Amino acid sequence: MRNLIKKILKEEYDPFEWTKDLIPSGNYSPGTIYFAFGDNEEVRKYILESIVKSFGDLKLNGDKVIMETDSWCDFADLFYDDRRGSDGYINQYLAKQILCDDDGDWWEPYHGSDLIPNKREWKDTIWDDLVLKNEKVITEILNYIKKNYVSKVGYNPNQLDVFGELPEKQNVVEIKGRVLDENYFYELKEDLDILGDLINEEEEFLELKRELSWAYADAYNTAARDEIWKSVKGVIERTFGGGVWKQKEVKKMDGTVNRHYMEWGVTDLFWSTVLSYFDDCGYNYDISNRVEGKSLDEIEEEIDNCCSQCLNPAWDYNYFLSLYGERLRENGDEFNPRYQEWPDDDNIEKYFVESVMDRI
User: pTM, whole model, 2 decimals?
Assistant: First the structure.
């Protein structure tokens, strides 16, 4: 019996039980209901649809809030706007470069010419550390040399054959006074260390050396972008969860087109953001007005007179992502994650192989 009495008293004095009967079915703004009754399940049910429909990038799936973005670029403004430099941290400039590929060109974190080793370091950095570690690259380089530099043994462009015709023209290249013919080429195939020295030092191999150097610069920049992308994508997904690409048909004046967009489940983030917005508005609207007995019309009029933006956050922000970004800036919590400044060696090697295949 004692437990039953306690249960009855608890239910009778539930501080929010009375809201179930008082929250009307009328068209009151979300802020009015929140300031009148506080945060509870019934209040959330009342204001959810109204707020979600007010934002251009939100929709409901049952009671789940879904955010739509056109691309990763929509998140760029959430990052710290530090114009002085990144110093190993992702700022807004870096975020936009990695997320917003407007012209379809790959952004390079480093100037390619700055990455190309000087003559003294070239052989160690490119030839020894990258070329000699990959049989596929070695084979490609040897085939390139054979095709563009090697002539047949005893080739004489002026000597007629048995039919009285001149031989097919071949490229004759001399290295240190010696013709690079098939015999010399075989020797170099057997001693790749010497071949690397010759490519590095001899003018005749300048074009090949240049292509290998730019392949290294491409690989380094691609690996560096990977590190930045990993950090940028990580902080976005830790906040918004994993996005899913979707497609739907959109009717326009000139016909129907496919719209590609991303969906994000943001229910918890939605409530924490919206409720904190209302709570901060409480500094403008005397939250002590949240008392039983005051009419909702009076509360709405008071809020409208003192701070109309507190009636609905979407009145100040057309998009939820804009509201969230402003909340970050107001609290000094803009995204500013670290990234690995020195790219992974394995990634550089992988991209170097790809670039060499494309170039030669």
Answer: 0.82
